[in-house]
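User: Epithelial membrane protein 3b (MAM blood group). Structure?
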Amino acid sequence: MAYLLMFVTLLHLITLAMLFIATMEKSWWVWDGLENSDLWYNCRFDNVTGTWLCASSKETEWLQAVQVLMVLSVVFSSVSFLVFLGQLFTISKGGLFYFTGLCQVFAGLTAFSAALIYTLHNKEILPNSKELTSGHFGYCFILAWVCVPMLLCSGVIYIHLRKKE
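Assistant: Predicted structure:
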């Protein structure tokens, strides 16, 4: 039981860190390594100064939907972890972690929705200045997709997990 508890806690923390990185980092779409776009900024690398020059992303309805859903996913997962820690000390013997599991499942569904919207509507989200064919999805986009099954699996594990002590 102790190993399962450590596994679930570690899985939750890893997934939460990956979600946070996917939401805040600068690589949802990449063009030739010198220009990229994320949920908040469009950035271009300046070879002269050796710095990234960033401007706010054009606010479209699809981009705002992805932003809100990714932030909600981080919030749901954070709340889930805090509730789990609280339930460890307050739930009675044999109790189930339903609320924690439901929060994790909601986090997975919101991350799924955000990644799906970005996949299907990247032409409307990305700036018009670059050809989409010359770019590709970045590692933050891939992290968001990797988080979806991890969140859903941990949510199911939480729902079936019973307090033994």
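The longest helix spans residues 61-90. The helical segments are 2-24, 61-90, 98-120, 122-125, 139-160.
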